[in-house]
Design a protein that fits this description.
Number of strands: 0
Distance between the termini: 30 Å
Radius of gyration: 22 Å
Helix content: 55-70%
Structural class: mainly alpha
Strand content: under 5%
Order of helices and strands: HHHHHHHH
Largest sheet: none
Number of helices: 8
């Protein structure tokens, strides 16, 4: 989404205490405990709460906040991929593979786009067992190879 060049250009447009505020805001949002309030962040950056609120209206400030947040979130990619795999395999809490997770997997792999539709139907109640899912997966993979 954001390149290092884009981020560097945005950083050049902000003051050091604004960059510090952005870092603190992102760290606070991702913290599982000890989240800081905006007032605490403002104080740590040497500005008033009102100034921090004004900065948050600045498009450059917001773009950089978004970029830093995206970078931080990407560090969780391996964890998210592992959870997705558990859902695909059906080794999550309920033991049933998730069709939605299969769809997400293929979208992430860019093998599905708006022109292709996947419809899975099985049994009277629409529930799929492992054999049904594996058969559908094989059919999907065969269709992607064409």
């Amino acid at each position: 989404m954001f390149t290092n060049i884009d981020i560097a250009k945005l950083e050049e447009q902000l003051r050091p205490n604004q960059l510090k505020a952005i870092n603190l805001m992102v760290e606070s949002e991702f913290a599982s405990a000890d989240k800081k309030t905006l007032e605490e962040i403002a104080e740590e950056c040497g500005v008033s709460r009102i100034t921090l609120y004004q900065w948050r209206k600045n498009p450059v400030f917001n773009q950089l906040l978004k970029a830093y947040s995206s970078q931080h979130l990407s560090s969780y990619r391996a964890l998210a991929d592992a959870q997705l795999l558990k859902l695909i395999k059906g080794t999550s809490a309920n033991g049933i593979p998730s069709i939605k997770s299969l769809e997400l997997f293929y979208k992430l792999q860019q093998d599905l786009n708006g022109d292709k539709t996947v419809t899975l139907v099985s049994g009277d109640n629409g529930a799929l067992n492992r054999a049904d899912i594996e058969a559908e997966l094989a059919e999907l993979e065969a269709g992607l190879e064409d």
